[in-house]
Amino acid sequence: MFVFNLENRVCQPEAETDWVSEQTFVTGFILVAYQREFHALKERLRVAEHRTLQRSSELNNILEQFRRVIAETNGSKDALTNFSDETQKLLKELASRKPLQVPNIYHHLPHLLNNEGSLHPAVHVGLGRTGVSMVMGIPTVKRKVKSYLAETLHSLINKLSPEEKHDCVIIVFVGEVGGNTHIHTHIHQAHSIILFSSGLLEVISPPASYYPDLKDLKETFGDSRERVRWRTKQNLDYSFLMMYAVSKGVYYVQLEDDIVAKPNYFATMKNFALQLSSEDWMILEFSQLGFIGKMFQAPDLNLIVEFILMFYKEKPIDWLLDHILWVKVCNPEKDAKHCERQKSSLRVRFRPSLFQHVGLHSSLAGKIQKLTDKDFLKPLLHKIHVNPPAEVSTSLKVYQGHTLEKTYLGEDFFWAINPTAGDYVLFKFDKPINIERFLFRSGNQEHPGDRIENTTVEILPFSSKEKYKRTDDRFYRVGQFEKGVAEGAVDTSFNPVVALRLSVVQDSAVWAILSEVSQSHAIICPLIFYIMFIFYPAECYPV
């Protein structure tokens, strides 16, 4: 078995002198320092943007109330006598203006107009902390058999450092409207773990007037009437919680009330989000189950809530989220594989999972769910990455369903049988990209002695380069494996590149696993490859 591993370092040839290595280290250190400052500035700008949007919304509400007052007093001769002529003129002009009506939440939930307090929490316990990096939302309702809320909060809070406890807020949303007994029970469970006065924890509950009549919902997708009601109310609960959380932090993480977390989960999520700050992602997934561990950027919550409320009676929340991604990036004229590649740029999976589902008894009465995240206990053997959309293919025979497509999306490893001369692994990019350097290194923590030889690295430029020697199918060889490593620079004249290929030039007696694939615009970072082929990324900076 052969394994390729990567290192987090500036890509430099091994023949460079020591002083170059030291200079590279210093340069990398400075870049990291500046990157942290940039991320801190970006967070502050996002918080400022959230506050600006909040103030704008408040001003619009005041303006709307002003218009209503003017409309109500329009027929009274004495109503405006206390104002100057100029003021009266301005007020009449304001009242006469009739702008187009923009669809809003009241178009989807018209019953909210019957009660002014429908969008205000009926119960709120906590300081209302804002300006944090991360907001974690936990919806909960009464479970007939057992509540897991106390265990969940204990796991989340005990695994936060003192500094992290000041940089986040945990919101428990109690979706109960039939009396305060259950709400008080949830508050007691939370209060036994940490005082609300610290600002870390909040408990909210919506007013009964927030919910529409859920008795006559249409049964769809073979679900029972009770299940349709349950999933519809769940969509409304998520929406209320997100609307409350949108202005409180930079990132919002959706959790459930029956989970446990890994140590250092907060720092891992935050660092991963910052690492991808330049990427156009919409969802970061820190668990493969349901709606657990899904991170969003706060500004995206408004779009998500609006979409959910448009179709809250139609489908479950996880289906609606997938539809949002489809609407944003999928081309109806392309096939399903192309759509999945496009969606993968917006929905990024982190492995291993940071949260494990522990609840056996569902909040849906009578439902038993034996769901566990198989990735929860797996060690992290590679650095997480985001790959540009590409069509992947291979001549190797796949073993037990471990496909190359899943590997490129970060969902699985690729497992193939006995590579022979002429076999290949091909990455054809949807759009040509620029490549500066590449590095393939064999071996990882589990297989440090496993290496690969007799495989070349090849690229297909967008346009032909006559002065360079090429293969019969117009690929150019830019590297090969020596002592388990292939690294080097790509001549800039080759850019942009349409495809990258790994070609086996000699038979191998072992099987092949490709466990991680990482490519990036501007640079191809180290990948891992086991023949067992594995691709692992490293953070490489142009030199």
From TrEMBL:
Q: Where in the cell is it found?
A: Golgi apparatus membrane; Secreted
InterPro entries, sorted: Glyco_transf_54 (IPR006759), MGAT4 (IPR057279), MGAT4_A/B/C_C (IPR056576)
One function term, GO molecular function aspect: metal ion binding
Q: Which pathway does the record list?
A: Protein modification; protein glycosylation
Q: Which cofactor does it need?
A: a divalent metal cation
Q: State the reactions this protein catalyses.
A: N(4)-{beta-D-GlcNAc-(1->2)-alpha-D-Man-(1->3)-beta-D-Man-(1->4)-beta-D-GlcNAc-(1->4)-beta-D-GlcNAc}-asparaginyl-[protein] + UDP-N-acetyl-alpha-D-glucosamine = N(4)-{beta-D-GlcNAc-(1->2)-[beta-D-GlcNAc-(1->4)]-alpha-D-Man-(1->3)-beta-D-Man-(1->4)-beta-D-GlcNAc-(1->4)-beta-D-GlcNAc}-asparaginyl-[protein] + UDP + H(+); an N(4)-{beta-D-GlcNAc-(1->2)-alpha-D-Man-(1->3)-[alpha-D-Man-(1->6)]-beta-D-Man-(1->4)-beta-D-GlcNAc-(1->4)-beta-D-GlcNAc}-L-asparaginyl-[protein] + UDP-N-acetyl-alpha-D-glucosamine = an N(4)-{beta-D-GlcNAc-(1->2)-[beta-D-GlcNAc-(1->4)]-alpha-D-Man-(1->3)-[alpha-D-Man-(1->6)]-beta-D-Man-(1->4)-beta-D-GlcNAc-(1->4)-beta-D-GlcNAc}-L-asparaginyl-[protein] + UDP + H(+); an N(4)-{beta-D-GlcNAc-(1->2)-alpha-D-Man-(1->3)-[beta-D-Gal-(1->4)-beta-D-GlcNAc-(1->2)-alpha-D-Man-(1->6)]-beta-D-Man-(1->4)-beta-D-GlcNAc-(1->4)-beta-D-GlcNAc}-L-asparaginyl-[protein] + UDP-N-acetyl-alpha-D-glucosamine = an N(4)-{beta-D-GlcNAc-(1->2)-[beta-D-GlcNAc-(1->4)]-alpha-D-Man-(1->3)-[beta-D-Gal-(1->4)-beta-D-GlcNAc-(1->2)-alpha-D-Man-(1->6)]-beta-D-Man-(1->4)-beta-D-GlcNAc-(1->4)-beta-D-GlcNAc}-L-asparaginyl-[protein] + UDP + H(+); N(4)-{beta-D-GlcNAc-(1->2)-alpha-D-Man-(1->3)-[alpha-D-Man-(1->3)-{alpha-D-Man-(1->6)}-alpha-D-Man-(1->6)]-beta-D-Man-(1->4)-beta-D-GlcNAc-(1->4)-beta-D-GlcNAc}-asparaginyl-[protein] + UDP-N-acetyl-alpha-D-glucosamine = N(4)-{beta-D-GlcNAc-(1->2)-[beta-D-GlcNAc-(1->4)]-alpha-D-Man-(1->3)-[alpha-D-Man-(1->3)-{alpha-D-Man-(1->6)}-alpha-D-Man-(1->6)]-beta-D-Man-(1->4)-beta-D-GlcNAc-(1->4)-beta-D-GlcNAc}-asparaginyl-[protein] + UDP + H(+)
What organism is recorded for this protein?
Oncorhynchus mykiss (Rainbow trout)
Q: What is its EC number?
A: 2.4.1.145
Membrane topology category: Single-pass type II membrane protein
Identify the residues that the record assigns to the MGAT4 A/B/C C-terminal domain, covering every copy. 390-516
Protein family according to the UniProt entry: Belongs to the glycosyltransferase 54 family.
Q: Name one Pfam family in it.
A: MGAT4_cons
Q: Which UniProt keywords apply?
A: Coiled coil, Glycoprotein, Glycosyltransferase, Golgi apparatus, Membrane, Metal-binding, Secreted, Signal-anchor, Transferase, Transmembrane, Transmembrane helix
Q: Which Gene Ontology biological process is one annotated for this entry?
A: protein N-linked glycosylation
Please give the function described in this protein's UniProt entry: Glycosyltransferase that catalyze the transfer of GlcNAc from UDP-GlcNAc to the GlcNAcbeta1-2Manalpha1-3 arm of the core structure of N-linked glycans through a beta1-4 linkage and participates in the production of tri- and tetra-antennary N-linked sugar chains. Involved in glucose transport by mediating SLC2A2/GLUT2 glycosylation, thereby controlling cell-surface expression of SLC2A2 in pancreatic beta cells.
Annotated Gene Ontology cellular components are: endoplasmic reticulum; endoplasmic reticulum-Golgi intermediate compartment; extracellular region; Golgi membrane; Golgi stack
- Is Magnesium a UniProt keyword of this protein? no
The MGAT4 conserved region domain is annotated at: 101-376
Protein's UniProt keywords contain Metal-binding: yes
Q: Which gene encodes it?
A: LOC110504700
Supply the name of the protein.
Alpha-1,3-mannosyl-glycoprotein 4-beta-N-acetylglucosaminyltransferase A
